[in-house]
């Protein structure tokens, strides 16, 4: 509730075009298909043909990674169906997930719900990424055992215990209903290396310990083996949130939405400092 000396500021709702991830003409591309000497392979990372253009795109990719092409644009010209969008998608995949990539067609500019200026502005702000750093307290360790006690009648709260270990120590934690549900949702089992955010209670599954690599004869490609964490279980870790400016606009248009990125008692103050620095720039 605002006091007499404060003015209520209404933030307009930002319209967003919802996109659906589906299998398309370029969803199989994983990169440009170049070797270390920037020579294009015949068939690699979903790319076939256009070897000279892929090599030129590899040179541009190196300049982008070194920061030598900031503030400039790249124009790919050619007849329809020659692979311009495929090369752009390969550059995007080679840069990684942290670099935002926005693909749009000319028909998206003309819409009854959104003006052309707003559509172009939204596309540009989707392509500008912001890294926000936050230091949080986490619990990181290898799961030794999970014990869940359910009432015999089936009615009541579930309780349990979680045993985590590192290379130096082992600790047993009591679990409530929400933590048990979070563990079941992430499909955590003995041998997994997990992190638990103490402020939010979020559980993240990092991978599976190398000591359990021989538990199964065959594993899927999504299985990732990691070392058992070293040191103490509770530690402070710097978390980097990578968001686009458009995502900040959408979240900020909702009430207390931007606070979802942060945790802790000083979340609102950190949010104020970030927006103050963005405004100065």
From TrEMBL:
Keywords: ATP-binding, Chromatin regulator, DNA damage, DNA repair, Helicase, Hydrolase, Nucleotide-binding, Nucleus, Transcription, Transcription regulation. Residues 22-265 form the TIP49 P-loop domain. Proposed core component of the chromatin remodeling Ino80 complex which is involved in transcriptional regulation, DNA replication and probably DNA repair. GO terms for cellular component: nucleus. Its EC number is 3.6.4.12. It is an enzyme of class 3 (hydrolase). It catalyses: ATP + H2O = ADP + phosphate + H(+). Its main location: nucleus. It is found in: Nucleus. Pfam families: TIP49 (PF06068). The keyword Transcription regulation applies. One of its GO terms (molecular function) is ATP binding. GO terms for biological process: chromatin organization; DNA repair. InterPro entries: NA-bd_OB-fold, P-loop_NTPase, RuvB-like, RuvBL1/2_DNA/RNA_bd_dom, TIP49_P-loop. Belongs to the RuvB family. It comes from Rhynocoris fuscipes. This is RuvB-like helicase.
């Amino acid at each position: 509730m605002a006091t007499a000396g404060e003015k209520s500021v209404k933030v307009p709702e930002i319209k967003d075009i919802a996109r659906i991830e589906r299998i398309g003409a370029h969803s199989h591309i994983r990169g440009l298909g170049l070797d270390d000497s920037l020579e294009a392979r015949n068939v690699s990372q979903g790319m076939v043909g256009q070897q000279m253009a892929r090599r030129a795109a590899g040179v541009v990719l190196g300049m982008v990674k070194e920061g030598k092409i900031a503030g400039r644009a790249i124009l790919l010209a050619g007849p329809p169906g020659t692979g311009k969008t495929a090369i752009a998608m390969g550059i995007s995949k080679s840069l990684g997930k942290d670099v935002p990539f926005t693909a749009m067609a000319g028909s998206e500019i003309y819409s009854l719900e959104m003006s052309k200026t707003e559509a172009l502005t939204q596309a540009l702000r989707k392509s500008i990424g912001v890294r926000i750093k936050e230091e949080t307290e986490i619990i990181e360790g290898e799961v030794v055992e999970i014990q869940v006690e359910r009432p015999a009648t089936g009615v009541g709260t579930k309780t349990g215990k979680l045993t985590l270990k590192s290379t130096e120590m082992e600790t047993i934690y009591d679990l409530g209903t929400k933590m048990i549900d979070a563990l079941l949702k992430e499909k955590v089992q003995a041998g997994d290396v997990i992190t638990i955010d103490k402020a939010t209670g979020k559980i993240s599954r990092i991978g599976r310990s190398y000591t359990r690599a021989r538990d199964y004869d065959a594993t899927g490609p999504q299985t990732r083996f990691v070392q058992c964490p070293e040191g103490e279980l509770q530690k402070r870790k710097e978390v980097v949130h990578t968001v686009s400016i458009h995502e900040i606009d959408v979240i900020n248009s909702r009430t207390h939405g931007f606070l979802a990125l942060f945790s802790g008692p000083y979340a609102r103050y950190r949010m104020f400092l970030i927006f103050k620095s963005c405004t100065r720039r």
